[in-house]
Every structure is written in structure tokens, then in C-alpha cells.
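DATA SHEET
Item: assembly model
Revision: 1
Owner: S.N.
Input lines:
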Amino acid sequence: MKKLTFVLLLVACVSWANQSPWASEAGTRPLVMKWLGNAGWEIRTGSTVILIDPFLTRKQASASEEWKTNEEEVLRNIEKADFIFAGHSHADHIADIPFIARRFGSKIIGSRTTINIALTAGVDKSQLTSIGGGEKFDFKDFSVEVIESQHGVLNRGGRRRQPRSQEILEPWSGPIKGDAFVQGGSYLYYFTFGKLRILHQSTGNFIEERLKNIRPDVALLAENRNYHWPDALELLRPKTVVIHHYDQWRTPFSEGIPESNRRRAQRFERVITSFDSNIKVIIPELLKTVSLE
Ligand SMILES: [Zn+2]
């Protein structure tokens, strides 16, 4: 009788392990990361597809005209999306999100501005989660922590300025014009996939006091020459940095990345390696996967 109980217990343990891949093979599950241009990423783990700041239409939104996603371009590159995370609400980060979410039934996690734009665009309320920083979500294949951040300083006509932080407090009856894509809150996402920790930065700045205890294996950082990077690198100590938001997001994929943009990424790479030459730096290519090996 005792022996039978032992066997049953063993069977129960094995089947539990099978249902919890992280418990049995934590850190070994393959993760495929594809750069979608700008701060956009597709991360696949198991059957789950996660998008972050996906922007495939790649054109400037006109302030006074109704925004139109290039649906064909989106569908050429996206075939599934379970979750979509939005770092902030400017058009080059979220303008394609409502279309993708409606098409694939994706859950959207973003600022209240992002959520109100999605509601206005007809995304169902049940798909939406509004964040304010400090949240922690545990999903089947991963967990994620939301960290409050701030927008990178912009350079407009040779003048630096911090964009005004505006929020949209409620949905409206539409249409959604380019000027609806105000900044909203800016957030970092700190993902955990088994043993692998990945930090996504939407725009090149931080609130440094929020970075304590954040030690990513991989940091996806937004190129911005106006930020003093050693301040954050000292705290984050990433093993690998992937540089994004260095391309020319206003032009279609077919035009590639101009040389001047590549030089910006290379300059940023030098800032990182002169801080710590042990940090591996990856400059990704449009619509290509990156290897973390
Ligand atoms: Zn922005």
C-alpha cells in the first residue's frame, strides 16, 4: 500500500512538471526575437507571440488627417499576436496597435492614453489593460514588470526639448487623427522568460531611481544622443544591449536604413563599449531575428 502511494505521488509530480515547462526546463525554451523597426519587437516563446511597440506603417501621422494603418504591410509581417505592449503613445509606437489587436484578438497593455485610443478605434474593452507603473503580470509563458520611465529628449531644428506629457483621459467618437497620438505615460517592460530577463525601452530616457534591482540579461535600448547613458548602464549592468529606434521610421522597409542612421547606432555602440567592453552590443537589421547566443 505504501509502495502504491509512492508510485502515485511520483506520477503526479512528473505530470505536474510536464504542465509547467518553466519548472522542468527553465531558461532552455527557445525564444525568437524579431526586430520590427523603430522600437518594435516580436518575441515568440512556445506558441505565444508578444509584440512590443509594433509600427509597420512607417510614415509620419498627419496631425489633421485621419490615421490609416497600412494593413497590407502589417499583415505581411504579423501573423499572430497574443499580447501587445505599448511603451508610450506616440504614433510611431502605437498607431498600428488597434488594427493588429482587432485582427488577432490581442490583449493590449499600455498607458491610459493608449487604452483610450484603442477604445476609440473599436478594440473591445476585454482586451485592454491600463498601466501606471509598478504592475507585475504573470502569464503562462512569461511574466512582466512595468517600470515608470520618461520620454527621451527630442531634437527639433537643433533645439532640444522634452515633449509635453499629455494624456487622453477618455475615448471619443473618432475619427483618430494624427494629433491624437500624444505621448501619454512612458514605461519600460521588464520581461522574465524562464531564467532570461529582457528590458524593453520605448524611448531614450529613464527615471534612474526606478532602475534599482533591474538587472537585465538583455536590454533593448532606444538610441538617443541626448541621454547620458553611463547613468543607466551603471545601474542596469546588462550582459547584452540591442540598439533599436535608430532607423528612419518615416520611410518604408524597402528603403532600408540610411548610412547616417547606422552611424548613430555605431556611435551609441561606442558609448556602451567604452563604458564596459564586456557588454555585447547588437545592432539589429530590419525584420530580422537577433541571436542572443
Ligand atoms: Zn515618442
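QC remark: DSSP finds eight helices and 16 strands in the chain.
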